[in-house]
């Protein structure tokens, strides 16, 4: 696959904003982790995905084999909040499509390894997100 260089930034301000985007320990991720911890759940963070270099789980429950990803609305094309940049639109469309394809490949790979995958959008309420995660980590035996 040919290496595609980044396009010329549309402005210094946009370039600066994009370069400051956190990859881990984002506000939504930390809020969810705090809630999970308060619920008595213990987990690991930024865990490498077996067999997939340079990919990590945001939150991992290794004993119950549950992988959690807290996805940003822009970067992972949220159906509610996704936007399409006007500048360099073709490059961004390809980039965001590849992000979605990578997410799908990661989900499939983890499922093949026996992991359950929970994907949370950054805009979701942390309490509701933690409850959804807890339901997968410790399902009721009803």
Percentage of residues in DSSP E strands: 15-25%
User: How many strands?
Assistant: 4
Task: Please identify the structural class as seen in this structure.
Answer: alpha+beta
Tally of DSSP helical segments: 4
Q: How would you name the CATH homologous superfamily?
A: VSR Endonuclease
Which regions are unreliable across 5 or more consecutive residues at pLDDT < 50?
none
**Rg computed from alpha carbons, rounded to a whole number of angstroms:** 17 Å
**According to CATH, what is the topology?**
Endonuclease, Chain A
From the spread of the alpha carbons, the general shape counts as globular
Q: Would you write up a description of this structure?
A:
The protein is α+β, with helices and mostly antiparallel strands. It has a single domain, classed as 3-Layer(aba) Sandwich (Endonuclease, Chain A). It is built from four helices and four strands. The protein has helices spanning 12-19, 27-38, 89-112, 126-137, and strands spanning 44-48, 56-61, 66-71, 116-121. A four-stranded mixed β-sheet has the order 1-2-3-4, with helices on both faces. A hairpin with a 7-residue loop joins strand 1 (44-48) and strand 2. The relative contact order is 0.18.
